[in-house]
Amino acid sequence: MTWSLDFAPFVGPTLLIGLGLAVAAVAVAGLLARRRGAGLRALTLALLFLALTGPEIRRERSETLPGVVVLLTDRSASQRLPGREATTEAARAGMVERLRALPGIELREAIFDDRTDPGGDGTRLFETLARTLADVPPERVSGVVAITDGVVHDVPASPAALGFTAPVHALITGRADEIDRRTVVVAAPRFGLVGKTQTLTFRVDDEGVAGPRPPVEVRLSRDGTEIARRKVTPGRPFSFEVEVPHAGEIVFEATVEPLPGDVTPLDDRAVVSLRGVRENLRVLLISGEPHPGERAWRNLLKSDASVDLVHFTILRQPEKQDLVPVSELALIAFPTRELFQERLRDFDLIVFDRYRRRGLLTWGYFHNIVDYVRAGGAVLVASGPDLADPDGLTDTPLGEILPATARDAPAVDPFRPALTTLGTRHPVTRDLPGGGTTPDWGRWLRLSPVTAAPDATTLLAGPGERPLLLLAHRGKGRVGLLASDQIWLWARGFDGGGPHGPLLRRVAHWLMKEPDLEEEALRLASDGRTLTIERHTLADTAAPVTVTDPTGRERKIDLAAAEPGLWRGGLPADVQGLWRASDGKLTALAHVGPADPLEFAAMRSTEAMLRPLATATGGSVRRLLAGPGDTPRLPRVTLRDVAGPRAGDDWIGLSPSRAVVTRGAERTALASGLAAVALLFALFAAVWWREGR
Q: How buried is residue 200: exposed, middle or buried, by Cβ count under 10 Å (0-12/13-18/19+)?
């Protein structure tokens, strides 16, 4: 309890000052004149003035609030290494017991765990500390005890940034003699042109190892498949020249052979995620004759900014006799040798639109086209009456790789194209606008009867399940066949039209191996918190997928049907690094978190990062495993209310709380009540008696 003297004047300050001056003047004048009773009169006037000031005694009841101590536990990926996790938990339990035993201390536990925020980068202990102390006044903070490996990526530059003046103590897990080998990405592009080469530069660092190191072997994998290996010298950058094989995400992984006694193998690998980008796709369109559908093909391909179109139309057949000069029919001669021998492999897709041989292409050129497809090229045949013609393409060497052969002349019978069972599952036709079990599409007027090859996939059919659109793989390449020349009716809006643009665009891009249109694919994607597994297949079921996290832990995930041809599953992305998914046939990779995360940039425990801050706040940094054995050595904890060191060889000190709260207050007036009135009357009577003698 504290006592104090306060005043509550009965009059305003101006009047009180005037009365005070008047009382002082009367008292001083009487004393200077040495009049009888001047001293008693001065005392009476002074007491009267004092009564007007309202003197009172104030008594307050207050207490000191308990100090807040934060026990900050680091559970980042580096803290989950073998040995460190057990040390951390043992130290946390021991420090909780010691801190709770201190009088006048409130313990708050705070935990940093990167599994709750996989999208973050590095160990953010002090961000966690700031959130924990957001509602605590600075004078209540008694100190911070952090259990960590010392690799902290948000250490404040000065103690002032903490917002309090209490000591910070760090208890370091791990041992001082740890060694670590890691692979570092020195330079890598984010994008690369398909078919071109890019340079990836890495470096292998051996930390904590004295003396020169012998060469070590590094293996480079692309999308999970090893593509190169070489011997390198630790500490020196080295490069791989890699080809970008396809569009879309490509994951390269460099893995070094392990180092005996390495603190962890998690950072022995470095990941580069590169996106393959196609240059403008080169398409060769050859129209065998002018017809309405020719413009639909040309408009579609010219409208795609990513396509460079080379288009030739055969305006007059060789056997046709008229008097029109050839120079007026074509700007240039049909460059058969240049197109089908010298520059054939420069094209990504060749489209034959209602094409008949008619002697323009020899058998040798068709053999070149077959070789081009088997080596990775693509051919699409859009047929009409030409397909069953004796000069049609099915009677050429190209016929051996086409997905179907002609049976008869086209049937002129209006029909509505419909999706087959496989068509509802294939990415090319699965979600076409207006599709479904009964597509709302316009009619076509002609369909060529064909016999599908055993390995061809029929996506669209006409009446009686007759094949209309067929796709097939041939060696490394692909072929397609559209058994009708009536798709231009959709472009004109006949009978309501149909999705001619999306259909032809998807067919063309599937033939050119667009990854998003693969019918058999396993994909793994992450939004930072969740991993999503997608299996695209034409089969009726999808096998369970085995997912392997960056630490090597495996989990089997059952997939559920999301839509026809698409099966999906998911799991938490609770570890940063490279994840793998496999169903026994296909493999997918996904990287969670930054490509070169700070958390794996330094896995050895250290005292250096926290020592400047701890020293500046009066705290300390010490290792829990300072001697032999795996039992952590915990310091004693005391409260130190005096200036001086806050740590010793076997103890750490905390500051007591300086926060005080008032619980109650009482006031007692000194110049009120009958006693004060009686005293004043007595003094006035004494003054009258003294002056009246």
A: buried
pTM for the model? 0.70
pLDDT tens-digit profile of 380-423? 998 877 777 777 888 889 989 999 988 777 777 889 999 999 99
Q: Given its phi and psi angles, is residue 90 left (phi above 0), alpha (psi -120 to 50 degrees) or beta?
A: alpha
Q: Judging by beta carbons within 10 Å of its beta carbon (0-12, 13-18, 19+), is residue 650 exposed, middle or buried?
A: exposed
Q: Are 551 and 79 in contact, with CB atoms under 8 Å apart?
A: no
| All residues at 6 or more sequence positions from 347 whose CB lies less than 8 Å from its CB, including other chains | 282, 283, 284, 310, 377
DSSP state of 78: G
Q: Which pair of tokens denotes residue 3?
A: 């006592």
Cα distance between residue 604 and residue 602, in whole Å: 6
Whether the pLDDT of residue 661 is over 90: the answer is: no
Burial category of 552 from C-beta neighbours within 10 Å (exposed 0-12, middle 13-18, buried 19 and up):
exposed
Q: For 410-522, where are the alpha helices, taking DSSP H only? A: 488-492, 500-511
H or E element that contains 113: none
Q: Which tokens go with 623?
A: 């290792």
Residues 6+ apart with CB under 8 A from 158: 616
Counting Cβ atoms within 10 Å, is residue 682 exposed (0-12), middle (13-18) or buried (19+)? exposed
**Shortest CA distance to 291 belongs to which of 349, 240, 353, 339?**
353
User: Greatest CA span in the chain, whole angstroms?
Assistant: 163
CB atoms within 10 A of CB 239: 14
Please name the helix (run of DSSP H) or strand (run of DSSP E) that holds residue 77, with its range, or none.
none
What interhelical angle do 292-303 and 500-511 show, nearest 10?
A: 70
Q: Per-residue pLDDT tens for 45-83?
A: 676 667 667 677 777 666 778 899 999 999 988 888 888
Report which DSSP code applies to 342. I
**How far is 119 from 526, CA to CA, in rounded Å?**
10
Q: Please, are residues 194 and 244 in contact by the beta-carbon 8 Å criterion?
A: yes
Who contacts 80 (Cβ-Cβ below 8 Å, separation ≥6)?
A: none
Q: How far apart are CA 58 and CA 88, in angstroms?
A: 52
Q: Tell me the Cα Rg of the chain.
A: 44
Distance, in Å, from the CA atom of 29 to the CA atom of 185, rounded to the nearest integer, reads: 96
**HEC assignment per residue over 277-296:** ECCCEEEEEEECCCCHHHHH
**How would you list the strands of the sheet with 269-277, edge to edge?**
191-193, 269-277, 248-256, 216-222, 225-232
